[in-house]
Known about the structure:
By secondary structure, the protein is mainly α. The chain has helices spanning 2-9, 14-47, 55-83, 89-113, 129-139.
Amino acid sequence: MILGLKIYRGKQNKKGFLKWIGFAFVGYIVALWSNSVFRWFDMISTDGLSVFFTGIRAIGSLNAFIVMSLAVLFGVLGVHYLLDKQKTAIKWFGLALTMIGLHYLIYLIYSYFGGMINFVLIVEIWAISLLGLGVSIIRKK
Length: 141
């Protein structure tokens, strides 16, 4: 909301806009992370830590914890380098988008083999397309 107001008013310098764009980007990634990871915390609270060691659920939980955490890390690094005006910032943003897309692709495959394909549309499955966008950004010179 703050970013929208800053853009609407147009009274911000370029670095100020970049800061708010970066915060919005990381905020959105953190929201996706929390949606994915807290689902597993809920399962841990009911089933215990056996979630991590039980068949295909181990893949799903590791996917959420590792891949989405990497997306947050890469997003934060992207904002850091963006504010330092380094050209590598865009590569870090691309890596963050790639990790998000990869996470949801793995989630889709996990859901199919786990017999939960009917519930896939409840999650942000559209984000699989970010995999292609992220790879494109990384490969762009």
